[in-house]
Amino acid sequence: MPASRRDFLRAAGATALAMATTREVHAAPRVDVPAPEPGAAPPDIVTPYFGRKPVARGTDGVVVTSNPHASRAAIDILKAGGNACDAALCAAVTQSVTEPHMTTITGMLSMLYYDAASRQLSYLNGGMNAPLAPLTGFSPGDLAGGRGAGVPGWWGGFEAAHARFGSRPRAELMRPAITYARDGFPIYPFLYAEMFAQLDTIGLSPTGRGIYMPQGALLPPGATLRQPEAADTLERLAVEGNRFWTGEFARAYCEVVKKAGGVIVPEDFERYEVRWVSPAHSTYRGYDVYGSPPPDNGGTHVIEALNMLEQFDLQRMGPPTASGETLYWMNRIVNETYEEGSKHTDPATHDVPTDFLVSKEYAAMRLKLMRMAPPRQPAPPPPPGSNHVTVIDQRGNVATILHSVMSLPWQNGLFAKGVSIAASGTHFFRIMPRPGERATVFVAPTLIMKNGRPVLAAGSPSVGLLQNIVQNTVNILDFGMSVEESVLRPRFGGPSSVAGTNYIEVDIDERVRDAAAKLGARWYVTSPWHFMNGTYEGIHIDPASRVASACADPRRCGMAYAV
Predict the structure, then answer these.
(1) How far is residue 321's CA from residue 341's CA, in Å, rounded to a whole number?
(2) Is the pLDDT of residue 63 over 70?
(3) 523 with 502: CB under 8 angstroms?
């Protein structure tokens, strides 16, 4: 299928189908059910739907993810005495089953963690590696076969996070995922839309056909999706851990990849190591801002953008939904920060001046240079496909995780032991890692603190994650919006499939859009609450009351719960 048609099916047909088939759900009474009161059991799991979600507030723990099955599993872990790390990992592995269009255990998993007892922040990089064998002549066509697969870091990240900060048994954290894989769950509209958009690849292998096309045709919305072989794989991981991952699973993975033209070998799995590093850090209007550092460079980009926005009187100018000037500069700053980020490679192999990149001096210099030149137009981004999870527990620990398929879902049609193989080499095109080295990826777990205490923990999936996080951060910190009000606001997004333009939702006032366009912005106008503009998985902690609140973004199918 030509790339242009595939893009159309995904960006237009998939979104339209997901939204169209959820109109009835939008009208259902459950959408307006208030969040559970602190201490109350969460309601029954709702069908994942696009649109407005209830707010969750509590003092004993809050979870927000892009899938209610995962959110419910995580809140149950908190209720059983688990901590933020336990709950976040439970949500992540559950999403690998219930959101197979957005994540897989053959992708990556990275986490920013705040340990309340020690008041220390740690960042775990569980990104993917390039194979040891060189990928000579690597091209977009390789993504359809084994050469487009990376060396996965997802399980390494899960196991390392659990070993350092987890408090509940691994099998307990993985039980909901195994249950959903073995017993199944109803196919919800967004998942079906993505299955339909990837109809050219999802059934290429017997495994894919067995899961998604057991009668020779795509399972319809509402049908039960079962993944029994994936359940077996997760059970083995729960019991055997890395021994199974680097042994039997690695051999199966490498065999499939090799048959499809790839070069990954078991040694790639054996030599893989996660990284524990210090988060990137700066300040913003009296707050401390922490984010993922290179080569997970999205958190650094958030800090860079905030450092430049700090030089504007946003209170005078107004939020981006009301001020063409704010909209223009915010859009331009995040565009050019993303473009410059394509030069920031792996600090383990290159001299990356991270401290300088997040400095106020660099931000001032960049803004002066921007004022002297016309805006650079954004380049088309890599395809979306990721999840974010944010959790705070009763003790004040915070976990915020980005994990991802790193590509279009089922892009190569390959499976190993019931699990789809991510075409994560998509991200090798931004910065090609040397053989055996870590990939540079665009993810952005962030944590904002005031007087040494967390006030805003967040992240976002999708190609619009930088725009998403910056807009919501400014809305909440500069303009005093609640998380609910912020996520419901119209939004601009990342680079669109039309070269030189950014997504912008039509319900940003046309006069504001036009004012920004007169300054140099170029827009690709979309329907409201567009899924390509990311979903803000954020938790705000009121500094005075310490009540935490979250509201899942209407642009995807998430849900927030509180203990």
Answers:
(1) 26
(2) yes
(3) yes
